[in-house]
Design brief:
Layout lengths: L1 E6 L4 E7 L2 E4 H4 L7 H6 L1 H14 L5 E2 L4 E2 L9 E5 L3 H6 L9 E5 L4 E2 L5 E3 L6 E2 L2 E7 L11 H4 E8 L2 E2 H5 L14 E9 H4 L6 E6 L2 E7 L7 H11 L7 E3 L21 E6 L3 E9 L2
Parallel strand pairs: 6-17, 8-14, 9-19
Antiparallel strand pairs: 1-2, 1-5, 1-14, 2-3, 3-4, 6-7, 10-13, 11-12, 11-17, 12-14, 15-16, 15-18, 18-19
This protein binds zinc ion (ZN).
Length: 286
């Protein structure tokens, strides 16, 4: 199932996407869940009803183009992200394959919609993109074993780990350069894990103004999604709706010779097989 959060008026609604149409779960079953995090939390009891509405939804559905999709989870509890997790990106960064998983967080306030603008900050001209598979935690928990990790993931999205390179790299901690407002767009919806199958077999691309900059496959992840869930959950409780950016392949703007950073008016698209595409315009911060 493809689960979206959208705006049709002032209040965000939950929706189910089928093809190029969307049906409002919030209108069909107002008591099912208040928002996506709530829906994920209650999924065991809510799934049957959601599937029934999706199946019967043809009459009540509308063209997707008539609504505005927002971040599937508008304010995640946490956004964790992995550095250096594709061999070609490690090489272009001039580094070696890390022995340990490199984790940083992106501020939850950086969450952004799949088609909303990305701010090019006043304080930097080194704005960059990173196409990433995003995993959304379902049941979550602590000390999740690697072979049980698949059950802890609710679904997947396409994401852009937007990065402000000078702010990221002028200190040893990357968090501030990864946490600017609007710099965590993801979506366009959550594709539930049952529809994705193996998340380590998906083509992934980033395009800037239609030019392919990153072109890889999630089979090239150094640490798999399962490895990531296992290690993260050894440290912290993973909660329903937590968001994990799983790393980016080679081809980021910083590594080009000369570097090609994002400019006002650029359009950045991240596409992942089965999951769909997000596309954000770059707009200078007012
Ligand atoms: Zn990244």
């Amino acid at each position: 199932m493809k689960l979206a959060t959208f705006l049709d008026g002032a209040t965000p609604e939950l929706g189910i996407v089928t093809g190029d149409r969307i049906v409002s779960l919030s209108r069909a079953a107002p008591r099912l869940a208040t928002d996506m995090m709530d829906l994920i939390r209650r999924w065991d009891e809510a799934e049957g009803e959601a599937r029934r509405i999706a199946g019967a939804g043809a009459g009540a559905s509308r063209p997707l183009s008539e609504v505005r999709l927002t971040a599937p989870i508008r304010r995640p509890g946490k956004i964790m992200a992995m550095g250096l997790n594709y061999a070609d990106h490690i090489e272009e960064a001039g580094l070696g394959t890390p022995d340990n998983q490199i984790w940083f967080s992106k501020a939850a306030s950086a969450a952004n919609g799949p088609f909303d603008p990305i701010q090019r900050p006043k304080v930097s001209s080194q704005l960059d993109y990173e196409a990433e598979l995003v995993a959304v935690i379902g049941t979550g928990g602590r000390h999740i074993a690697r072979d049980g990790a698949a059950k802890a993931v609710f679904g997947y999205c396409a994401g852009n780990d937007v990065s402000v390179r000078d702010w990221q790299l002028r200190t040893s901690q990357w968090v501030i350069g990864k946490s600017f407002d609007t710099h965590a767009p993801f979506g366009p919806w959550i594709t539930t894990a049952d529809e994705v199958g193996d998340p380590h077999a998906l083509s992934i691309r980033a395009l800037v103004n239609g030019e392919v900059r990153q072109d890889s496959n999630t089979c090239n992840l150094v640490f798999s999604v399962w490895d990531q869930v296992a290690v993260l959950s050894d440290a912290m409780t993973l909660e329903p709706g937590d968001v994990i950016y799983t790393g980016t392949p080679g081809g980021v703007g910083m590594a080009m010779k000369p570097p090609r950073f994002l400019q006002n008016g650029d359009r950045v698209r991240v596409e992942i097989e089965t999951l769909g595409a997000i596309e954000n315009a770059v707009v200078d911060e007012a």
